[in-house]
Amino acid sequence: MPAFPSPPAGARPGATPETAAAVWQVITDMYEAYSAGDRARIDACLDPEATVWDSATAGLLFGKADLDRVREERPAGGEGPVETGLEPYGQVVDVFGALAVLRFWLRVDFAPDPSAGELRPESVRNTAVLQRGVDAKWRIVHLHEDVQQPGGVPVGDH
């Protein structure tokens, strides 16, 4: 196996286990809140001026007002495939002072469709930038969602 050069010192600082867990907790809290339909808890994970590349929106969202506009444009519950679970996993955390860069995957599962049968899960690659505030809480200041495998379609469809 060929040897690969080591990254330059400081290029990937990593994080202490405690800090990595605190950063990851923001993400797991956000998705638990999403599953519970608790918008206030979701928003508590986000800086009010956060930017978001939403997986279902072409443009960059700037702050809570933009995010709320996109939320209101989304289909109402009962329309389209029914989500049955979210699983964030595969996290990689690096901390640079009061900033953290988090890379992770999100799997979205769907209930079977009565007419089409089993539906394919969605696979989303994510990058989040978090900032530790003066209150010592980590909040997302940027989130980039990138769908790698669209879900909610019959398993046999490509």
Write up what this structure looks like.
By secondary structure, the chain is an alpha+beta fold. The chain has a single domain (17-75, 94-149), classed as Nuclear Transport Factor 2, Chain: A (Roll), CATH 3.10.450.50. The protein contains 3 helices and 6 strands, in the order H-H-E-E-H-E-E-E-E. The protein has a 6-stranded mixed sheet with strand order 2-1-6-5-4-3. A hairpin with a 7-residue loop joins strand 1 (46-53) and strand 2. The longest helix is centred in the first third of the chain and has 20 residues, at 17-36. It starts with 16 loop residues before the first helix and ends in a 9-residue tail after the last strand.
Structural class assignment: alpha+beta
Tell me the strand order in the biggest sheet: 2-1-6-5-4-3
Distance N to C terminus: 35 Å
Counting DSSP E segments of at least 2 residues, the number of strands comes to: 6
Q: Largest beta sheet, briefly? A: 6 strands, mixed
The SSE string, one letter per element, is: HHEEHEEEE
Helix content: 10-25%
Low-confidence runs: none
Number of helices: 3
User: Under the CATH scheme, which architecture would be assigned?
Assistant: Roll
Produce a short descriptive summary.
The chain has 158 residues and is of the alpha+beta class. It is built from three helices and six strands, in the order H-H-E-E-H-E-E-E-E.
